[in-house]
Design goal:
By secondary structure, this protein is of the alpha+beta class. It has nine helices and 13 strands. The strands form two sheets. Strands 6, 7, 8, 9, 10, 11, 12 and 13 form an eight-stranded mixed beta sheet that branches. Strands 2-1-5-4-3 form a five-stranded mixed beta sheet, with helices on one face.
Length: 378
């Protein structure tokens, strides 16, 4: 909110000269040409103090006198009031934003950009909510040599801003039972397509690796896919794509939520199925490596579940294409399993596995870190 030092100096110079015809030289600041939206996570997605509706992403705009390009190192650190985001106490509230990824801002257009940031404490150490830093720690040379790839299927539910009910549902009532809506087309089946399409277009313009979209099983529920990408890229792109979804929701009057079970009863929950592979899994004979990874995952089930999203117990019930939260099992083409091996993978004998346990509100950096830790470092 404060003026920059250059703005203050210019203001003082103008004040000193007044409106008289003075011969004093006043330095005129160059025109501002670029807006950079600094984006970060407050680490409270789905937490009780915020609830399931409010998302964890925060952002603010910084202006520049020149096009700073796409190198994160070209962008300066910035600060924010951590006491207003639940990330610091009021008597020492400044938290530091450090740019790590820069993409085109598809809403404002070029040369404006979106800047994904890590959060640091005043002493220069990663903030406790900085899960990207924890992922960086496990990205050893050994892990990088394995070339882990990820793809995240981000499901979400659209809510009407004014009522809080699922977008497109009849007021005070329910639509037809599940069945006609998955990948459906037509006004009677697809609720909220304009937002889903606008989000897809924005992600493509921004250069994100978005693989596609589809209407999901519950009406008003949609999915988009990010990947295949590397571990750090997964978290960056999922967060940036989530920010774009929420930002576009403002324009449509729709609140996207990642609540894992937004509607109780006989309705599907909302997940973030994560596809994972290493270089050894992606070549002939890779099925043995996939099965070995699944065996390791079976032994760390509780650790993964504890960090796979808030409220996930509401979703992982053993119904609606899920496995019970306290059970670990895998299978080929089995959407009621914890880990699914897609049928084409089994037929080829190599490829990837799908971890179906993460909730829609899971931290993407955490998913990548846990899969790497369990399968490559244990």
């Amino acid at each position: 909110m404060a003026l920059s030092m250059r703005q203050t100096a210019a203001f003082k110079a103008q004040k000193a000269t007044g409106v008289s015809r003075s011969r004093r030289t006043v330095t005129v600041r160059a025109a501002l040409v670029q807006k950079a939206e600094y984006i970060w996570a407050d680490g409270q997605e789905g937490m009780p103090n915020k609830g399931m509706i409010f998302n964890e992403l925060r952002s603010k705009t910084k202006t520049f006198e020149a096009d700073m390009g796409f190198d994160p190192a070209a962008y300066p650190d910035w600060s924010f009031d951590g006491s207003s985001t639940g990330q610091a106490a009021g008597n020492n509230s400044d938290c530091i934003l450090r740019p790590v990824r820069v993409i085109t801002d598809p809403i404002r257009g070029a040369p404006h950009v979106l800047v994904m940031c890590e959060v640091f404490s005043p002493d220069g150490t990663p903030h406790p909510t900085n899960t990207r830093a924890k992922l960086r720690e496990v990205m050893t040379d050994k892990v990088k040599a394995e070339q882990p790839w990820f793809g995240l299927e981000q499901e979400y539910t659209m809510l009407a801003k004014t009522s809080g009910s699922v977008y497109g549902w009849p007021a005070g009532g329910y639509p037809a039972p599940q069945g006609p809506f998955y990948c459906g087309v037509g006004a009677e089946s697809a609720f909220g397509r304009p937002l889903a399409e606008a989000h897809l277009e924005a992600c493509m313009k921004a250069g994100l690796n978005i693989s596609g979209i589809n209407a999901e099983v519950m009406p008003g529920q949609w999915e988009y896919q990010i990947g295949p990408v590397g571990a750090l890229e997964l978290g960056d792109e999922v967060h940036l794509s989530r920010w774009l979804l929420h930002r576009l929701g403002e324009d449509f009057g729709i609140v996207p939520t990642f609540h894992p079970k937004p509607v109780k009863g006989d309705w599907n929950g909302t997940g973030a199925h994560t596809n994972y592979s290493t270089s050894a899994m992606r070549v002939p004979g890779g099925m043995k490596v996939i099965e070995a990874a699944i065996e390791k995952l079976s032994k760390t089930h509780a650790e993964h579940i504890s960090q796979y999203g808030q409220g996930n117990e509401q979703r992982l019930t053993g119904r609606h294409e899920t496995c019970d939260i306290n059970t670990f099992k895998y299978g080929v083409a089995d959407r009621g399993s914890s880990i699914r091996i897609p049928l084409p993978v089994m037929l080829k004998g190599y490829g990837y596995l799908e971890d179906r346990r993460p909730a829609a509100n899971v931290d993407p950096y955490t998913v990548a870190r846990l899969l790497i830790k369990t399968t490559l470092l244990n």
